[in-house]
Design brief:
Length: about 450
């Protein structure tokens, strides 16, 4: 048997009290280690959660997300998913846009797990193939010229971070005079200018010149100093630059129109702009009215602990926390919520929101309308997913928007006599049409 060494005897407790003291010390040390580990994991998780919506990423929306099971001359069979089974119009892309087909509403279910949609338009010569495809919720592809035959100019808007590419489509009145009413169109987070293609034919028919913009960190646009999205807190300056561009090139009044985060950018521009008197109206499509609500909603869906959610929000909104997520300045989330906009908004606003929106919940939009019923008209779209109100019912979307703009702008247009949608979803492809999302 091994004899105890003096060192062993020194460590061995000499009494029951000593044994308890030793156990307490070991337990305390273990708890301390566990606390440090759990706190570290909490901080790491919160940092990841805070950075997710701030990192520019357009590639996610270009990944194939739908299996094509069969391709016929007049119809396509797709795996049934919430997107493919939803009512309304949809487009599919393959090979990075070398293939672009437009599909009508679901007409049947060939098998228990597939849906059938009719082919209503082919924008490319290449054929759709069995395999994986990418849905294009924007429905149209390319530019205003290749999608709709609208004469389009590529211009640059001088923003505080550099020149931003934009599409300019001029409109004229019956006498050929160029319109002095311009609409600034702003896409959403991770989207592209193509998000506005669904609105352009209507706005052109109403005699409104359109400027469809990009903003910092977009593909092809300058980056911000920290290369991070600011959820509209900074991007509104690029929309403001677009307003100034319009006013410097003949506009006398401006309409601001935005989708998703673009809607939030529009709201922020409308209340902070130096040209509020020239802003005549807003049109918001599934807008980000309350970023705190959006962030908490998605964190809860991910089953993130409340402490992690609070820490992530602190990282986004405090000066010290902003450094931890590589933001150069904290986000003013307290100014991006219904109560703030209710106090500061002064423009007539049409607010359309998809009621099946799982990206930007419609609650804050309804709340803003409740708070400012004198200025904001809330129009729910049942059965539509995020920013897909036009896809669900193009005629209703265009008639609603047209009535709002004709009334607010006093346009010489009889909306009830208009044949809507202006460009039908099954319209023949334009010569030179392409399938790229630009």
């Amino acid at each position: 048997m091994m004899r105890a060494t003096p060192f062993d005897r020194m460590l061995r407790p000499r009494s029951e009290q000593g044994r308890w003291a030793r156990a307490t010390a070991v337990g305390t040390a273990g708890a301390g280690v566990a606390f440090v580990i759990s706190a570290g994991m909490l901080a790491v998780g919160a940092r990841v959660m805070a950075r997710l919506p701030l990192v520019p990423n357009q590639s996610m929306r270009h990944r194939p997300d739908v299996p094509v099971r069969a391709v016929h001359a007049d119809r396509v069979h797709l795996d049934e998913t919430p997107e493919t089974a939803r009512g309304g119009y949809l487009a599919l892309r393959q090979q990075g846009g070398a293939v672009h087909w437009r599909l009508g509403p679901v007409t049947g279910r060939p098998t228990p797990t597939t849906v059938s949609r009719p082919v209503i338009g082919r924008d490319t010569a290449a054929a759709l193939e069995v395999g994986r495809a990418t849905t294009n919720g924007f429905f149209w592809a390319g530019t205003p010229a290749t999608a709709h035959g609208l004469e389009t100019e590529e211009v640059e808007v001088d923003s505080p971070v550099g020149p931003m590419p934009a599409w300019l489509v001029r409109a004229h009145d019956d006498q050929g005079a160029e319109s002095d009413t311009w609409a600034i169109l702003v896409h959403g987070h991770g989207a592209t200018r193509g998000e506005a293609l669904r609105a352009l034919p209507l706005l052109h028919a109403l005699g409104i010149t359109t400027l469809t913009i990009t903003y910092r960190n977009d593909t092809g646009a300058p980056v911000s100093a920290d290369r991070m999205m600011h959820l509209g807190a900074a991007e509104w300056e690029d929309a403001e630059a677009a307003v100034e561009h319009a006013l410097a090139h003949g506009a006398r009044r401006v309409v601001l129109m935005g989708w998703s985060m673009g809607g939030g950018i529009v709201l922020r521009t409308s209340v902070l702009s130096a040209h509020r008197d020239e802003i005549a109206a807003l049109v918001l499509d599934s807008p980000a009215v309350d970023w705190r609500d959006i962030l908490v909603y998605h964190a809860t869906a991910l089953k993130a602990p409340p402490a992690m959610r609070r820490l992530a929000l602190w990282m986004m909104t405090s000066r010290l926390g902003a450094r931890m997520v590589r933001l150069h300045e904290p986000l003013a989330l307290h100014e991006m919520r219904p109560e703030f906009y209710a106090r500061t908004l002064r423009h007539r606003t049409l607010l359309l929101h998809a009621m099946d929106d799982t990206t930007v919940p419609p609650g804050p939009s309804r709340r803003l309308a409740d708070l400012r019923g004198d200025l904001v008209r809330f129009v729910p779209f049942p059965g539509a997913s995020h920013t897909r109100e036009w896809n669900r019912d193009p005629q209703r979307w265009e008639r609603t928007v047209a009535r709002h703009l004709v009334e607010v702008l006093d346009l010489p247009v009889d909306v009830e006599a208009m044949d809507l949608p202006v460009r039908r979803p099954d319209s023949p492809a334009q010569e030179g049409s392409i399938g790229l999302r630009l």
